[in-house]
């Protein structure tokens, strides 16, 4: 297993950042307008009660097959409204009102392993998505795009959104295109209630 240096960011979102947010009002999320798709670039502001969180999917140096490459990493930090700004020049962020209480928060994590000729060459843990379930049953999902270099965040609203997160088959199909390569993907969930 390739172990990244200690200075590298962790690709897993720490669930403790959401401590005490279940039961509070998810007031809104703020992002770029959708253009052609339901994805936005680099950043979404999450406004929960009197807290503001920055959910970002930005390129950061990380181990990639034994070398350091800039890959997109999902990060979540508590911040202020002044820090929720578009990664695109001259693009204003749009408020998407919710004003509903959070019933639970589901964090979907993945472990991806890639083997070359039966030798483990790459092993990474990452957060795939965060799903907020509201007390009215509606869900809001923020998903990291599956392409490792993409800084897009896919946003969906509806019900049973765990079923529309990018399928593991996407990963397996990409691996199958490479000779002598085999992959394993496992998903796990942390549910905060």
What features would you describe in this structure?
Strands 1, 2, 3, 4, 5, 6, 7, 8, 9 and 10 form a ten-stranded antiparallel β-sheet that branches. The two termini are 34 Å apart. The longest helix is centred in the C-terminal third of the chain and has 9 residues, at 168-176. A hairpin with a 7-residue loop joins strand 8 (139-144) and strand 9 (152-158). The protein is mainly beta and 193 residues long. It has one helix at 168-176; strands at residues 25-31, 39-41, 43-48, 51-64, 67-79, 94-116, 119-134, 139-144, 152-158, 181-192. It contains one helix and ten strands; from the N terminus they run βββββββββαβ.
Tags for this entry?
193 residues, globular, 10 strands, mainly beta, disordered N terminus, 1 helix, single chain, ten-stranded antiparallel beta sheet
**Radius of gyration (Å):** 17 Å
User: Based on helices, strands and strand pairing, what is the structural class?
Assistant: mainly beta
**Strand residue content:** over 45%
Task: List low-pLDDT spans.
Answer: 1-9
Strand count: 10
Helix content: under 10%
Instruction: Indicate the mean pLDDT.
Output: 88
Tally of individual helices: 1
Distance between the ends: 34 Å
> In one word, what is the shape?
globular
Largest beta-sheet details: 10 strands, antiparallel
Order of helices and strands: EEEEEEEEEHE
